[in-house]
Amino acid sequence: VEQQHEAAMRSELIEFAEELMMLVAQLDRTCVEQTRDFERWVHLVRRQQQAHAASFEALERSSAEQQQALQELWRAVRASRAAQAGRDGLIAELREDIRSREAKHNDLVEKHGVATEDLHRFREAELAKAADQKKRAGMRRRQHRILNNARIVTEL
Question: For 82-139, how does the pLDDT look when each residue is reduced to its tens digit (9 = 90+)?
């Protein structure tokens, strides 16, 4: 019964460790995907900002005829800034989501470490128990041999 209980516990520990590793891998993939999306978005925003900056400098050097074009660009810049403010909010949300996922990932990694330590301790205990049983079996064989020799000597 004790061996069945230990086997069941061992099986549960192994299943738990496997599920934990699957969750960690899934979380890693999700974080990598979100990081890639975020980096692409940042790259696009930077290109947009560089394009706006270049346009603005060109308009500053332009003549009085281009003053009207400059005013139109200012309207576009204002709209872009409003959009940027919305994107900044999204970036903040994404960063918070990433932090939350990292915290969950760290918790899972910590739990996996504890489960692994428990599994190692369990294995060490099993090995010690097996060595003790082997030692006891050897002692029983030795006792049987001594008793058998004593019986033979007594018969003689």
Answer: 888 888 888 888 889 889 988 888 887 777 777 778 778 888 999 999 999 999 998 8
Q: The tokens of 11 are what?
A: 């099986």
CA distances (Å), origin 70, targets 61, 82, 87, 105, 111: 10, 18, 25, 49, 59
8 A C-beta contact, residue 129 and residue 58: no
The answer to whether residues 27 and 112 touch, using CB atoms and an 8 Å cutoff, is no
Cα separations in angstroms, 13 against 104, 114, 115, 117, 121: 21, 11, 7, 11, 12
Cα gap 91→95, rounded to integer Å: 6
Task: Dump the DSSP string for 62-124.
Answer: S-GGGHHHHHHHHHHHHHHHHHHHHHHHHHHHHHHHHHHHHHHHHHHHHHHHHHHHHHHHHHH
**Helix 67-155 / helix 2-61 crossing angle, nearest 10 deg:** 160
Q: Which of 129, 111, 121, 110 is nearest to 9 (CA)?
A: 121
Contact yes or no for 108/22 (Cβ under 8 A): no
Q: pTM for the full model?
A: 0.32
